[in-house]
Amino acid sequence: MTTTHDTSTPPQRATGRDRARQLTVTGSEILCVVGTLYGVGLLGTRVEESSGGALSAEATRIAPATPAFSIWSVIYLGLAAYTVWQWLPSSVTERTRSTGWLAAVSMLLNAAWLLVTQQGWIWASVVVIVALALVLGELLRRLTQHPATGLPERVVVDGTFGLYLGWVAVATCANVTAALVASGLRPADAVSDTLAVVVLLVAAGLGVVFARRLHGRWAVAAAMAWGLGWIAVGRSSGSPQSLVVALAAAVAAIVVLAVVPWARQTSARA
Which residues are within 8 A (CB) of 46 and not within 5 positions of it... i.e. 6 or more apart? Predict the structure, then answer.
């Protein structure tokens, strides 16, 4: 049984490597912001209009309704706060050292995803978002090994990257589905519904795995439930409409949230 070992240490004196990490995170955040300006259409084409519309809210049965994407505002605000926080003397700990580089990579991959979608490279976007999900998964695993030392850190670091991972997990499922549809996979409605339900079962399974291995992080579950909930809304009131998929998405969202208390209790007893 996996247990959490509190290997966190008090703040330490910043070294040259710490400064390099802090500068890299800051530079990565700047590039992430630039990528975002492309993604929202200020410098380029909005994401939902890029890649031939393959990533729009009505492109597939797994696409969340448009309001779901407002979660990015919270995530980006959190990343900006993290970038400032990691310069504070109190942040120079083994916990930050073990995760800071991964945070920088996640920001770069975020920018890369936005830029490849601008080019219409839908399968390249799948590769990038899968890599992003893996990086965030490892980052959260390390955060779980080194518990936060105070409320600000729990909010700015654990909260931000928890939401980030949860949303990207759902977005990865949607991205893969969009790539398949854009490549010409357009089965009959009944088959499409079945495949969509299978994908949602996979998403719910990921939520259970995250809850168990990350000791029941509410931020991860909340972001996943948010995305799944808006898939349910999109399929019940938008196009393509599918009440079967809407129900499956709603059930998946409930499962992802329901397993968190169990995972937290299991972790506490370990």
Answer: 39, 40
List of residues 6+ apart from 113 with CB closer than 8 A: 35, 125, 128, 129, 132
Rounded to whole angstroms, the Cα distance separating 220 from 231 reads 17
Q: What is the pLDDT of residues 14-60, one digit of tens each?
A: 899 999 999 999 999 999 999 999 888 888 888 888 777 888 888 89
Pairwise pLDDT comparison (58 vs 160), residue with the higher score:
160
Our CA angle for 55, 111, 139, nearest 5°, is 100
Residue showing tokens 């084409």: 45
Structure tokens at 84: 């400032």
15 dihedral zone (left: phi>0; alpha: psi -120 to 50; beta): beta
Crossing angle of helices 218-237/243-269, nearest 10°? 170
